[in-house]
Amino acid sequence: MQAIYQMDATGNFDYTALNPITEAENALAKPQAEKTLSAVRDHIGEIDELIAGSLDKWTIDRIAKTDLAILRNAAAEMLYNDDIPVKVSINEAVKLSKKYGDEKSYAFVNSVLSKMEKKIQ
Fold it and tell me: Model confidence over 72-90: pLDDT tens digits?
């Protein structure tokens, strides 16, 4: 999530230039992180389209950057990583939004991801 936030902030979706990924502390997490970040890099338009289509009375440019990074991370996992169950992606995204978002972020993220899940199925 933090790498996706950084990619958005810099406007550079080439995650290989980011130190947190190339110097991953947990070797087991690195392949999953790279798979998710590659999906974001390669499919950002499709991911953002799915997010935008799952918003009610809201536009993607109005989403807090931390919430957007969390949504992009979960969407990439849901769409392009069959190794991670959709429910796990949603649960992890809600946990991240509770930690990094404001007091209403987790409900917003959960709502958007639930709509995305229905569209994906």
Answer: 999 999 999 998 999 999 9
Overall CATH class of domain 2-120: mainly alpha
Angle between helices 29-52 and 65-80 in degrees, nearest 10? 110
Q: Which two three-digit tokens encode residue 37?
A: 């970040």
**What is the Cα–Cα distance from 78 to 43, expressed in whole angstroms?**
12
Q: How far apart are CA 118 and CA 19, in angstroms?
A: 35
Task: Read off the pLDDT of residues 9-40 as tens digits, 9 standing for 90 and up.
Answer: 777 666 665 555 444 455 545 677 788 888 99
User: Residue 28 in contact with residue 61, Cβ under 8 Å?
Assistant: no
Q: Which two tokens stand for residue 44?
A: 């950002």
Kindly report the length of the chain.
121
